[in-house]
Design goal:
Helix content is 29%, strand content 34%. It is α+β, with helices and mostly antiparallel strands and 184 residues long. α1 packs across α2. The protein starts with 7 loop residues before the first strand and ends with a helix. Keywords: Transferase.
């Protein structure tokens, strides 16, 4: 694996590592409505310190083969609009897809565009065999993104995650290498 985080380009987005001077933007966006509520690991409130630690660890986690996290930046403006990630399990050649999009940029296809590019990178450059993801049963938007990019619904794990004192259903989605290659 390369030691530097990749730069990936889509029709509208540049996916790349965040710079330390973007901590304030990350801090403001990650505190947006629904971000922590719809994700497993993002704290609320999301502090400036949390943003700084996240940015500072991005490259080391990638070099260690643990996590590929990239900022979603609009080509036209350079604006940070979200984060996309693959939590890596090299032993099983598996990537767990995750991410979020800022409230003012939702429903514009950015999540699907970024997730598709990172999934391509996972299969083509990281030699993954499988890419999967999960979302809370109530998060229809994330489920729609996963299906839109070709991940298949694999089932519901009832009350599998305790979030804010409530047991949440987790919907599972995945795609394997052969299916991803045949999608064209």
């Amino acid at each position: 694996m390369s030691v530097s985080l990749p730069h990936l380009s889509t029709a509208r987005l540049l996916l790349r590592a965040l710079e330390t001077d973007q901590a304030d933007a990350l801090f403001r966006l990650a505190n947006g409505p629904k971000i922590a509520d719809n994700t497993a690991n993002i704290p609320s409130p999301y502090t400036l310190h949390t943003a700084q630690v996240f940015i500072g660890a991005m490259e080391a986690k990638y070099r260690a083969g643990e996590l590929l996290s990239l900022g979603m930046h609009e080509h036209a403006t350079g604006e940070l609009v979200g984060i996309v990630s693959l939590r890596l399990n090299p032993r099983h050649r598996y990537g767990h897809l995750g991410g979020w999009v800022a409230a003012h940029c939702r429903n514009q296809g950015y999540a699907a565009e970024a997730a598709s590019a990172v999934t391509d990178f996972g299969f083509n450059e990281l030699a993954l065999q499988r890419v999967g993801s999960q979302c809370f049963g109530r998060n229809k938007e994330s489920a729609r993104v996963m299906e839109k990019i070709g991940l298949r619904y694999e089932g519901c794990m009832r009350e599998a995650f305790l979030k804010n004192g409530v047991f949440e259903d987790l919907l599972g989605f995945a795609v394997v290498r052969d299916d991803w290659e045949r999608r064209l």
